[in-house]
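W.,

You were right to be curious about this one. When I first looked at the sequence I had no strong expectations either way, so I just let the prediction run and decided to look at it fresh. Below is the sequence, 573 residues in total, followed by the output.
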Amino acid sequence: MFHARRSGRFLPVLVGGVLVLSACGSGDPAGTGAVSAGARSITYAYEQEFHSYNNNTAAENATRNAGPLQRVLTGFWFYGEKGAITPDRDFGSYAKTSDDPLTVEYTISDKAVWSDGVPIDCDDVLLWWGFKSGKIKGFSTSGTTGVEDTRLPACDKGGKKFSLVYDKPFADWVAGGPGATELLPAHVVERQAGLSEDEFIAAVKARDARRLEKAVKFFNDGWVSEVSLPPAELIPSSGPYKLSKMDAGQSLTLVANDRWWGAPAATPTVIERFITLDEQAKALHDREVQIIEPQPGPNVLKELQKLEGVKVNVADQYTYEHLDFNVDSSPFRDKRLRQAFAKCVPRQLIVDRLIKPVAPEAKPLEIRNVAPFQANAAAVIAASGGAGVYARQDIEGARALVAKAGRTGVQIKIGYQTPNPRRTLAVQLIIDACNKAGFKVVDKGSEDFFGTVMPANGYDVALFAWSASSLVSGWASTYTTPKRCDGENKGNNNGCYSSKKVDRLIRKLNATVDLAAQDPIIGEIEKNLWADVATIPLFQHSSLTAWAEAIHNVVPNPAQSTITWNMDKWSLL
């Protein structure tokens, strides 16, 4: 997620950055952190290219899209400082008005308009509910958790108020309504589908999938950016910035939205440059960019700490690294092979070699869905029993399981997004260890792993990261049995893992509002995920952020909103 991907609130980690204070290589050749006077742009770097204005489909729910859209598409809440769920008072207000049934009332600001002047109102809300509830056939969605248990919002054309009424309690109701990047312009969809606003609203209320067929098709595919951005009239903004242009393979430019009704963006232009992780430190040194989030490592950390006029920050993240099995169409349909692989993967060696030089206290993860720095981590580990037999590498045990399955020498394709030096090294460590256990592991890293390989299940096991948050509902679709195992229907469950028991526990967790009562349920879920060997958790990520001292209000964020969560506050003073 992310990879940090899907579930809408659980993303696969993917995206890029920009700057514009001077020509490449000439802004500050001495690497002192100086920024030219009068610079009116800020550039940041991200590893992957922006791909869609619609971050909400199963295929496009990833940080490469969510990052730059944080202050382009606003909503009732966002992941604010330290990853906290933060109401967006500029956009509107909301409050719980009843516990039985759970009811939350929402009011969109009277000032709220799209950058083309069209008011943000009822039809936009109904578009959100249409794809997010899963109740209208055809919409691709990264996850329906919570919204699937709500009734159709009662609003009419032009209406700015609506309520979400839940059929059952929802633990994360505070983030149940449309948040940042989730509310999209219904009027654009209507035009592309040849529907009037009245016709669209009526069709959603009737859940008329046939009438909405063209609208659904455009929603799923019409906002994808293959070479350049869609025409400006298709991508209006509801935030301080709007998308301006994309240079394929190079950058994405955002400019201030002159119809934004809140505090104006502090800097007129922000540019995202698409720069691979291993090249970002040099780009900052050469002043091609002013903000970077490279992959943490001892060498890059030392390199950045030597730069004058540069601030360096290392901090915890909700993001974690893991191996995700394809249990639908690979040798890992056999549970014995998943068990063997979990025994041979050198989790401790990976942490010792690749993570401890930056985060000395790092350990292999015992659970997946609660970060080590969260207050309830110890309680969940105790309730789950931790990693158990997989806590330590066991080559002999792995070899015995491979032999028992009769699959000695079976080829295993391990996929991941390239270029990624740390993952390439991790894959080599896995190859060295697991080939001794009877597997034949092959490095199948590719530059379009997230774009084509993963959606098509073209891997046996995938190495990537989930970018998450403190929301317990955020990872529901990652482990919930998908309706069908294809790109449009499996949500975040890439490998199509299925367990009726885990499905029941997830439903129970999402309906548990009492925080203390959640921990035993999460522990039971983790116990089952280990018993099934659904995935192999590896380590918690640390973020490494560096920026020119002249840039003010850069605040790293541990949640999936990334460094861009407050980009409209970035300034050059």
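Here's what jumped out at me. The two ends are 35 Å apart (CA to CA). And, maybe more interesting for your project: Residues 1-38 have pLDDT under 50 and may be disordered.

Coffee later to discuss?

I.
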